[in-house]
Backbone:
């Protein structure tokens, strides 16, 4: 990105003054190096977001921001319905409620190293992954509607998981305000056989070990210690969410002129929150959040089954489940007043500081766990929300490494088989149906996740608790 | 007019751009659909064993392109097939398409990634300086 376009507020905070049609300024949180590496399109997109009606305070870009659709990935924006605020299907993205769930296992590295291969095989056998894979469940219309209303709580009723899992899931596993009738038949049809599937692309399931602790007190509260084994699941609302994104993006593109919304980019398509289209989208989007929560709940159950086969003494409990593609209603301070706003987080993670009522009781005094997915060859991080992030970014932080190289370039540079062998040499086992898929997700195609989380910490968005490195990666 | 008919991918940050080039808009739509299949697998590996009919209607050619690609994404998802051979007829902003392909065979196709949807990003339908028809957009994977 052209640095002359920005004014530097600190080493990790950069500002674009409101100009042209911008209603508010834009703020980018990142190191100078990360900003330099960002595409100029991130500048263009965050400026465009700042032009949308009813936007509050500023449009924000997280340290892992990169070129997305309409909104940059790593974009955060809040809208007030009382001021004509909008909801944007592009501001949530196609993979509604994509997120990360991390499970504690009560195991140490030594418990896993001797059975790493059979554990990888069992996980690969139990969890459907990749293009065209189907889950064991085949839902009829009524079951699908129940799932869309009740999320992970629905999955629990079918025997997938434990009550305690819900305590550690955002919204206790069930997003209120879901409207299954707002979801098209097309979207439902895409989901009938996809429950409990991982998907493809950057989605994965990893067995990881804790290699470093940065914050002893938070780590203890989260149940993390050096050499602990954890499992992280990264996936979303599958075909249903993708189709809802497709359906509503089209409607919002076509209806924007009717609502008097001038779009600088069609992909920014949106509708007033208080409009029939806005309300219908919110109902469908919340149903997709429930689909994602149910999906990660079912996968949790499958992971437990796989572990039980190989390491019967493992006891898998949910550390936390947090989404990074959502629009949620929250209360935040704006110009000295507590306001009810609609926060879009597109490739950004909610990061509530200590004391927030939405945090599970057992963790409330510490702050919300913020789960950051890395790549199969580098590391992932667990962070904790801070008081400061409320003021800085509507309590939001980064979500992952962020790509720095296109899929196309990645396949030219790496061969899947060769990567799998190299990683095996470093003690990381990959299981995937597609060697090209592995090449497209090569660790080198991503930014350095460590510099992303360091920037998030230095910008005050969240604080590092633990670094995790992979031992097994199931890749879709 | 000497037009190099074909398809290609181009880089977009996290995802991938698909482009079809043809002597007519319909041919560009056929080619960009092959590019879509190419995101998933090598289209040459896909046999034409199953036929699917697709109908779309839109207010303008660009929205029609997004609709066409999304209709294919939808058909591939619900039928668990990869579609890689296409015929397109256009009448104004109405599209009648036929697509051929086969069920996903993980061993033979090695599908790299599923497409979530076609986007309005970098969306273009029109003629370039050489007179060739170009149809392109970014797809989310």
Residues:
């Amino acid at each position: 990105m052209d640095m002359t376009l920005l004014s530097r507020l600190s080493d990790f905070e950069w500002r674009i003054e409101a100009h042209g049609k911008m209603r508010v300024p834009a703020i980018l949180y990142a190191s100078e190096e990360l900003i330099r590496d960002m595409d100029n399109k991130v500048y263009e997109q965050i400026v465009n977001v700042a032009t949308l009606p009813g936007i509050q305070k500023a449009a924000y870009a997280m340290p892992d921001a990169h070129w997305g659709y309409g909104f940059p990935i790593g974009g955060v924006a809040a809208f007030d319905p009382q001021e004509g605020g909008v909801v944007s299907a592009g501001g949530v993205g196609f993979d509604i409620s994509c997120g990360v769930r991390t499970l504690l296992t009560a195991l140490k590295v030594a418990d896993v190293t001797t059975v790493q291969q059979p554990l990888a095989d069992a996980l690969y056998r139990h969890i459907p992954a990749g293009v065209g894979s189907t889950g064991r469940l085949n839902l009829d219309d009524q079951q699908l509607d129940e799932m869309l209303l009740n999320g992970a709580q629905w999955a629990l009723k079918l025997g997938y998981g434990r009550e305690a899992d819900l305590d550690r899931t955002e919204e206790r596993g069930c997003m209120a305000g879901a409207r299954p009738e707002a979801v098209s038949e097309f979207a439902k049809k895409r989901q009938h056989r996809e429950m409990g599937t991982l998907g493809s692309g950057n989605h994965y399931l990893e067995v990881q070990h804790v290699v470093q602790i940065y914050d002893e007190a938070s780590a203890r509260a989260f149940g993390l210690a050096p050499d602990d084994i954890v499992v992280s699941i990264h996936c979303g609302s599958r075909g249903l969410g993708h189709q809802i994104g497709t359906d509503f993006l089209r409607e919002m593109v076509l209806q924007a002129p009717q609502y008097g919304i001038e779009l600088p980019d069609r992909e920014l398509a949106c509708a007033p929150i208080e409009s029939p289209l806005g309300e219908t989208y919110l109902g469908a989007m919340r149903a997709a959040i429930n689909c994602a929560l149910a999906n990660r709940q079912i996968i949790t159950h499958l992971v437990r089954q796989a572990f039980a086969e190989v390491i019967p003494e493992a006891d898998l409990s949910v550390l936390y489940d947090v989404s990074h593609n959502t629009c949620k209603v929250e209360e935040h301070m704006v110009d000295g007043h507590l306001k009810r706003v609609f926060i879009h987080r597109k490739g950004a993670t909610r990061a509530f500081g200590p004391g927030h009522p939405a945090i599970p009781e057992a963790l409330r005094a510490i702050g919300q766990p913020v789960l950051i997915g890395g790549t199969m060859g580098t590391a992932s991080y667990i962070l904790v929300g801070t008081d400061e992030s409320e003021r800085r970014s509507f309590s939001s932080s980064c979500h992952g490494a962020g790509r720095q190289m296109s899929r196309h370039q990645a396949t030219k540079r790496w061969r899947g088989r060769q990567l799998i062998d190299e990683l095996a040499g470093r003690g990381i086992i990959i299981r995937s149906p597609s060697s090209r898929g592995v090449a497209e997700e090569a660790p080198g195609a991503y930014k350095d996740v460590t510099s992303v989380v360091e920037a998030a910490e230095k910008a005050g968005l969240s604080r590092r608790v633990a670094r995790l490195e992979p031992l097994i990666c199931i890749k879709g | 007019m000497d037009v190099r008919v074909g398809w290609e991918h181009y880089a977009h940050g996290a995802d991938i751009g698909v482009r079809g080039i043809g002597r007519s808009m319909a041919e560009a739509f056929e080619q960009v659909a092959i590019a879509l299949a190419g995101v998933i697998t090598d289209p040459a590996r896909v046999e034409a064993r199953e036929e699917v009919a697709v109908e779309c209607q839109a207010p303008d050619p660009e929205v029609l392109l997004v609709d066409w690609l999304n209709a294919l994404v939808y058909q591939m998802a619900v039928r668990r097939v990869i579609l890689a051979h296409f015929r397109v007829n256009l009448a104004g902003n109405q599209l009648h398409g036929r697509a051929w392909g086969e069920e996903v065979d993980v061993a033979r196709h090695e599908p790299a990634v599923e497409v979530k949807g076609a986007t309005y990003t970098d969306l273009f339908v029109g003629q370039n300086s050489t007179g060739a028809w170009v149809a392109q957009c970014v797809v989310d994977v």
